[in-house]
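Sample pair:
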Amino acid sequence: MPYIKLGTQGPLTARRVLVTGPPNSFKTTSLATWPRPIHIISLPGEKGYESIPREEGIQSYALQLDPAEKSSSQAIVSEVIKLSLEVVAGKHGPCTTFAGDGLHKLYSHMLNMVTGGAYCQGEDFEPRLYARAHEHFRFYLDRIMTTTTPYVVFTCWDGREPDNPDLKSASPTHVYPDLPGKMAKNIMGEFSIVVYASVKHPMSGEGGKPTSTWQLLPHGKVWGAAIKAPKEVVERIPLTIAQDFRELERVLQAAQTKKETK
């Protein structure tokens, strides 16, 4: 596992991206805009696999469980890890983009696994087990994100996080990825880019189609958006863009070009 030397100048690219947002905000649909061949794994428990585009250059996977058999979270997590590593290793065909749809659902299985099933049954468990679930979760992400796969993207629901947990329900809140405990904020450091998906529907009686956007930087109530880049580059990046990987790459490279030619 050798280190690689980073050049003094290199184009900013959206190599490792987390797309967060509420349900039905076109997160899954936007995965089709990444470079192909794309392999999309619908993570266990994710119900949005019907919106995965059935197009040339997109291979999708959904977990099939026998309703007559009880499957443990440990077995489910093991199956996800096995398939994910096979995909990035090219065992299911060339892979330019690896996509995991519904990262919050996978975390739930990992937490259920370390609590011996207590989490999904609504039973009390030792709070320190969250730390163990965090480690399993990070380990999975590390194994996928550090591969030579050109692009890795995950989707995740959004959720409200208190600014001051000590104030409990009285605390102001902001929008972050919908993950338990510290992982809601810590995951922001796991990706080079975190975008927030939203959709605006036409008013009743108006024509036109819904407008879907990605918020690229923290603003207003949404703090779960960020781009890792030099400060002067980030300052040139627009707040929102259309939900399209190609547009994301374009604005990143345009912001960097302005910096280099200033």
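Residues 129-145 form the longest helix (17 residues).
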